Amino acid sequence: MGVKKRISGCVATANAVKLADVEVICSFPIRPYTGIMSELARMVADGELDAEFVHGEGEHGQLSVVYGASAAGARAFTGSAGVGVTYAMELYSPISGERLPLQMAIADRTLDPPGDFGSEHTDALCLRDQGWIQGWAATPQEALDLTLLYYRIGEDPRVLLPQYACQDGYFVSHIFGDVEIPDVAQVKEFLPPYKNHHVLDPRNPQIMGAQMEPAMGPGMQYQRYQAVESARQVIEEAHDEFGRIFGRKYAPWVEEYMTDDAEIAIFMQGGHSETCKTVVKRLRNLGEKVGMVRLRTFRPFPTQHVREALAKFKAVGVVDNSANFGISGGAGVLLTEARTALYGLGDKVKTLGFVAGLGGEMITHEEFHKMFGKLKEVAKTGKTGKENFWLPFEL
Amino acid sequence: MTKENLFEEPGLKQITVWARGVYENKEARDVVVAITEAAASEGRFVQAWENYVDLPDRIYVPVRAYGKISDQEIKSKYVYENEAPDIVALTEETLVKGVNILEGIKPGAVLVVNTRRPAGYLFKFIKQGTENLSKIVTVDANSLAKSIITLSGAEGATDASGIGKGMGAALAAAIVKATGIVQFESLLKIVGNKNAAKKAFEMADVVEVKTLVRAG
Amino acid sequence: MSVQVKDVPFAGTVPSPKTENEGMITGSWRTRRPILDKDKCTDCRMCWISCPDSSINLTNGSVSFNLKYCKGCGICNEICPVGAISLVPELDFEE
Ligand code: SF4
Ligand code: SF4
Questions:
Q1: CB contact at 8 A, A46 and A96
Q2: Given the CA of residue C79, which atom of ligand 2 is nearest to it?
């Protein structure tokens, strides 16, 4: 059995990287994810972890280093935040195209402006369609667990895809939470050693990322599409195994909180769901039929599961913690994805978009309370009127 | 939906420790970590973290570390600050001057200061928030242990230099003496410098604010 | 709590401080106050050049401290060739 400690999301992630016995790590500092790398650097320096620790000259360099390391057959890890994430944009597609299952931790930070350190999912969401596995942890414990889960999913021979393991900067990455750190034997059972069938090896030379003709294009992309689609099965299996070995059972796609007989619900992802839960609980105590659905895996998007989860409500408020200017629906990515998932159900489920917590601002109990108030009104009257709200100014 | 008192957390205790950037970051963090770990060992719900918006990499800048202790699960989990502290502690005495250290304190709150000066002298410098203050506790923590200057433990990482090895242990002990927020025995089990903690627990001088003369 | 839209500077552009920056008053960082011994001072201006916060004023050729911004770093005390600046605990001064 593991040990229980109170640690930050950064330290939780670093512990998972150590347990996964990662072989190559590439760092470059940017708040708030920096704590992960300083912890790993300490582990390597203290001899707790035997890994090659390379300091990149920037995020583009970081991703290039782990790209090469993974191609050479090493289990590799990197990470970043905010504009660091977007600076490495060129590398994300080649890495998934090359089918290299390395992992990148993202502790969210806003892009500039406002140039503060606060969390916003915008950075990681910019990368969402690059053929990586992606999802958000809501607590330090889940940050640790995601790292282990994602290596297992990504390295599965049916998948071979890289992963973004995301956590809200500061809220999850910096505030200490209760974490059970599993023991090595459990992790060994869950996560077999990394073996890729196409590795760079001088004894068996091959060219990676060779020039292709347009005629090859459709097939190349279709391969990647198939990999992402076959990840669905593997994600479910991995979560089952995880629950069996570690005793923590996560729903692989959506976590439903107090949704039994609920008439209205919030749909969201990430750490602010913890705040939302306490509001749901309080409102339940007052007899209100409210619930919450938290998305756990964002890519591949579980269209069917989201549809099933949300179809039972009269009104759903989708909370977007990202800035998506000019997007359909006028709120964020999650609203458009949720509406796509609900497509075909007609007007049965009313959907409202709430943009909240931008620039790293907290999403308060009171704000969630207001969202539920709005949803209740919509559920009662059956009329929506304005459908997108930028908090705190429009609600 | 009624809103009244919906989000109150009656049993929640908040500790805010003010310190000087860089050379006291660790000590401020140690105070909240030591006390919350002690509380956790008594079976209570706790949280500890450092202020994220202060500028902790600038020497002398006022910085803060926070702790929360409750008998129930903590609801206000993902916030930036302690809005209504029950305990305010200063790792450095000059913070009484020109910094609004008592902002938002609850009625009956306690101020604990690392200083050689008497409470009455410090009190003269505090311009705001004293109406809710009940006690000032002074302890010369610097004479019991040094401040450990390290970047270990910054940015949420593990502090490899050990919890309560330095002056923070003494300050934490003074807090415990004045407030009884945790059992002193629980605190002693956590802090590295047990000697400093024991001496501070004896030495700390607790003064009722009602006996002091208010600032101008 | 979030600042109202109208109170957020347009496009994050703020006027550059010309003489002082009210948004960053560093005087509260000070634990020790620099005190000048006028008899020793030779008006060499080394402290004036070296102060990282431009908190030393020069009036009619002689130096004085701007305590609103002096953060008490002690560089002036280190740099003074004749030892004319001493550092005194800030709490020794009631004002
Ligand atoms: S102590 Fe530092 S900030 Fe103050 S006047 Fe001297 S050099 Fe300038
Ligand atoms: S460096 Fe010393 S001698 Fe020179 S102007 Fe400053 S105080 Fe006077």
A1: no
A2: 1
Residue window 57-86, chain C: list those with CB within 8 Å of chain A.
none
> Are residues A361 and C12, on separate chains, in Cβ contact within 8 Å?
no
Residue C56 belongs to some domain of the structure = yes
The structural domains of chain B, ordered by start, are 13-215 (3.40.920.10)
Ligand 1 centre and the CA of C56: distance in Å? 7
Say how many domains are in chain C: 1
pLDDT in tens, A46-91: 999 999 999 999 999 999 999 999 999 999 999 999 999 999 999 9
Structure tokens at A373: 């108030």
Cross-chain Cβ contact A113/C12 below 8 Å: yes
Please name the residues in contact with A264: beta carbons below 8 A apart, sequence gap of 6 or more: A289, A290, A291, A313, A314, A315, A316, A317, A372, A375, A376, A378, A379
Q: Does the residue C9 lie in any domain?
A: no
Question: What residue in A sits closest to C11 (Cα-Cα)?
Answer: A113
Q: Of the candidates A316, A289, A311, which has an alpha carbon nearest to the alpha carbon of residue A375?
A: A316
ipTM beyond cut 0.90: yes
Paired tokens of A95 = 């890495």
> C46: domain range?
37-95
pLDDT in tens, A199-245: 999 999 988 888 889 999 999 999 999 999 999 999 999 999 999 99
Tokens of C12: 């994050």
